[in-house]
Amino acid sequence: VRYVGSGVIRPDIAGTEPQRLAEIFHGIDELIQHFTPQHAVVERVFVNVNPKSTLSLGQARGAAIAAMAAMNSDPMSMVLSICSLADPACSPNVSNMGRSCRFTWNS
User: Fold this and answer.
1) DSSP, residue by residue, the chain
2) Which residue among 43, 46, 58, 80 is the one 20 to 30 A from 69 at the CA level?
3) Which of 67, 26, 64 is nearest to 45 (CA)?
4) Are strands 39-43 and 103-106 parallel, antiparallel or unpaired?
5) How many Cα neighbours within 13 Å face the side chain of 87?
6) Is the pLDDT of residue 107 over 50?
């Protein structure tokens, strides 16, 4: 595993929920096009004290996974393997620090 880059996807908070999820989808798609990864790891959603926050996080995660899975639907694209891990399982492997793994690619 090696670091290849980082960035932030900041959906417009004034947008509707579907618009913000679309921004996440397109942001992940841009990262995939830029880095052309072979593997992707996505953190599993943890149960939060606030159920609304947990639901929002799950929807954002779903938009990101959908963008990754869409890459596999194009027969001309390389296949991207997608793995879901709990945060403690992926953080030390990527950054040698806890609670830092969000969306990480290894190309």
Assistant:
1) ------------TTS-HHHHHHHHHHHHHHHHHHH--SEEEEEPPPP-SSHHHHHHHHHHHHHHHHHHHHHHT-TTSPP-EEEEE-HHHHHHHHHSSSS--SEEEE-
2) 46
3) 64
4) antiparallel
5) 9
6) no
